[in-house]
Every structure is written in structure tokens, then in C-alpha cells.
Amino acid sequence: MKIFVSVAVLFGLLLTGCNSSDDSGSSTSAGGKTPLFTVYGNKAYMNGEINSDIVAQLNSMTAANPQVDTIVMVQVPGSRDDEANLKASLLVRSKNLKTMLPAEAMIASGGTDFFLAGVERIVDPSARIGVHSWADGNGTEGKDLAASHPEHLRYLTYYNKIGIDPNFYWYTLNAASANDIHWMSAADMAKYDIATRDMTANEQANVFAVPSQFGQAATDLFDRYTWVTVPNGKAIHIFAQSKVSLAQLLKARNTLEFYLADTATVKKTLVANSMGDRGASLFIFNDEKASENAMEGELGNSKIADFGQDLYATEIFVEGDSRYLAAPSSARDATFEEVLHLTQAQGIAPALASLQKKIADQAEVALTNNVWNPDADQLEEWRAEGDLETGNSVSHEYFAAIVEAYYGMWKGLPAGMDGYTGNSRALQIAHDSNGQAIIAEFLPEYIPTTMDIDPSFAVGSIFYMEYNAALSYTAKSQYLQSVRLTGKNNSNIVGNSQNNVLMGNQGDNQIDGKGGVNTYKVNGLQSEFIVGADGEGFLLQDTVDGRNGTDKLLNIQKVEFNDSELNLSR
């Protein structure tokens, strides 16, 4: 009988800080909810150890959700009943299900066997696949038995049925003892055809086609869908039209995740759960005209629009793109504003009445003191919008104005949004200190959520995260703590005084963390990299082509691999 590595032992071997969150959107429908599977759209998200009831769980889930075609394995450390696991795995194959490992996923032992049953297998570069020898109840390990021993037959038969090279079985026995784990290298994954195809960019980003459950109004208008899972297991929905770039879609999702991230002093559970309970939805349209047409049509009459907020591709500036880097002008990035409107209307106002009242009261003070100066017609329109539960639009627009100013989005202009005079942190303290105190009740001083730098960021360019008056965009980027280069360009990052978490791309990058205690994250096992001193820093070379390139590291104290951490302090 195969014994998996105990959860305590296995997670002790895992890289601290790399646990993946459950990206599922909702539980399976009545009769299909199981401890292991949570279904959203056509995907079943799998979390936890596999037990003797796995066949029943799988059948229950698929019966209740016949649309499911993919099992996304997030954290599956092994199986306690290998016979049941192999039966369930063969069911996966017979049901023609795909298997997928998303970003930072982890599977091991029996979880690996289950994954291999997928009729199509897709693996994110940051996922970990663990193998080891099995052991029976007496501690006898498979690697210690003769090749002709009948106990091997069940595994060899299984691999034969799913088309896996039988040599993979012998490889697993010798890779690690039953009380240890071996993380497969990219070379080993390729040798044994672990993945049947590469992940698409959308799949890597957890972006998929719009599920049919949202109705024709959504599927006709939008071509992509993603979500943010809240603590109660429900989802905040994000829909995007065809001209919204993937980078723009992720900027919107990252911004929502930032607003909902706990801080050292503030827990956002009530806000996030309120948004999930209400079915909050962000609709990202190609432009304003597309939004107007949609809301005048079927979408405007649909249930999903009741708790929605719109945003346009024309007003999403991604870190590192030409509009983000440009000097301040009448064109502006509205991502922070519109996503905050959704968060306030569907989360803060219903769940945190006292904070909502403070915002609304301070908005009136700011109007009275001419600190915030929207025109009279606009103000009258805002007062007529909203309701007692979500608050009227005056409170929403004021909160957006002070938050945008706080994070540097209006520095260098005569005033902030709608004539807000506190358009920098210093001016905000002078003109609207109570407004800044309200921000501190909900949001942190710096933005810890990783923001992606647009793939268009030019070869040889440096993305600066410290303020430089000669680079207007740094009024915003100075408040970032974590950024990731995307694409393939050989571009660079210079951090700031915070404890930065930085990531490169497929090109060759120079990463300077500057002050703070800084971490550099890469995709791959430590054994797949060559690390050496290079002048005042280090050179980090990925031996796997097309993945991380060769990076020069300065003022980086720690490198985080998929399987371990390397301390560079010296």
C-alpha cells in the first residue's frame, strides 16, 4: 500500500511563503459539494489530501456539474488510499477530463498520479511536482523490492493505461525515499512528457472564457473572465471585452486584490465577503461607447449588472506602458477610481457602516472648506445616485479623489480629481488631514500587491520605484513594493527603501533592490540555476532556456526558487 508523505512533513519541505491561494469562485451546486472540489464555470479546483472517498467525491462533483472539463489542482500533497486514488484517476481519464497546475500549485505522491490521468495536462512554470518511493504499512519501500515483485504491477498497469512511460515509475521510486520528496526539474518533466502542451498566457493568468452560467448577455459582450475569491468561498467577477489587453485585465484584478488585502492593522474579511455575497462584478469595456450600448441593452437589464461597476480599456494605464510613463495630462488612469467605487459600494458601505459614515461626513467637510471642488451640476447628479446601503456617489467620488492623491496619481498637476487641493501626501496633510486619516483606516502606506510591468516596457529601460522629480511616473511608482517584469525584453528594475519583492521576465534583467531587505523570485528549482558573485552583486543564470534568462542582482538579500530560498547576504 502506498503511503504519502505526511502533510506536516511535506509542508515542512515546501518553500515558506509560496503557498498558493484557492482561485475557485464558488462551491459546487447542491449535491456536488465535496471536501476536495470547488467548481467555477467549467473548472473544478482541487485542494487537499486524497482519501478513500475520492471516487465518490469525483462522481458527485461531475454529476452535479456536467460542464466541468478541467480539474485544476492547487495543493494536493498526496493520497492516503492509493487503490482508491488510482481508481479515481482512471475515472478522470474515462471522463475525458483535463488536469491543470496553476501558478504556485503543488502536487506530490498520489497527487502526481492523479494529475497524470488528465487527457490533457497543463503546467504553470512555477508549479511543483513531487515524487518519491511508496512504502507499505510495515515501512518497506517500493525501491527495495525486486522489479518482478507483484506489488509493482498495479502502478505499471495504471501508467500503461494512461499512456505514461513505465520508466517514470522506476524514476519515482529512486528519486526520494518515502519520507522525503523530490521536486521534478524541467528536464525531467520534459523527459517523461508530464505536460502535454504549454500553458497559454491567459491560462497562466487564470483568465478564461466567460462561463455560460452568466447568461447570454455576458457571453455575447465579453470574451474573457477572471475573478477574485473571497474568504467565504464566493467570487467577485471580472469581465473583459476584446480590446482589453491581458495586462490591463490583470491591472484591474491586481488593484481589486490590493484593496481587499489585509494590512497589519485592518482585516478586510467583512468587506470582501460582502462583495462576494452581493455578486459584485467589474465590467471592463473597450471604451465608453461600448459601455453605454451594453447598459442600454440586455446587460443593463440582467441580474449581474445590479451590483456592477464599469471600467474602460481606454482608461487603464499599466505600469511601464507609454501612458503610465508619460507626464501628467488630461488623460488619466481610472483603474484605482473605478475599482474603488466597486469596493466601496458593494463592500465598505454595506459591511463597515462606521467607515462609510466617516467618508460621507468628511466629503461634506471637504466641500464646505473648498478642499474638494466638483462643479455644481456634477455634485447634484451624485447626490441623486446611490442608496442608503451603498451610499450616494458623493462619498464614492470623494474617497476616490483622496485615495488617488495619496498614491501619487495627481502630483505635478495644479489640483487633484474634481479640484481636490490635497493632491500629494504633503498637501493632503495640510488641507485634508482627516481625509488622510480615513485612508489609513483602510489602506496601507505602500502597495504590497505585485503589479505587472507591461510587456511593451522597452529593451534597456529601467523601471524606477524611488521618486525622481525628472521622471514624473515615479510619483506613483514610489509607493509600490512589488513589481514583475513581463514579456521578453531585456529591461531592468530599481527598487526603493521598502522591503521589495521583485521578479524579472524571460529576458536578461538587472535588478537593484536598493534599500530594505529585498527578495527576488524566479520560476524553477534551485538546482536549475547557477549563482555566482559578480562585482558588488550576483549573477543568476537559469539553465533552462526561455524561462528566466540571466539576471544581475544588486542589493538583493534573498532569492526565492520554487523549492527553496537562497540567502545572498554577505
TrEMBL record:
UniProt KW Signal keyword: yes
Presence of keyword Signal: yes
Keywords: Signal
Signal peptide bounds: 1-21
Protein name: Alpha/beta hydrolase
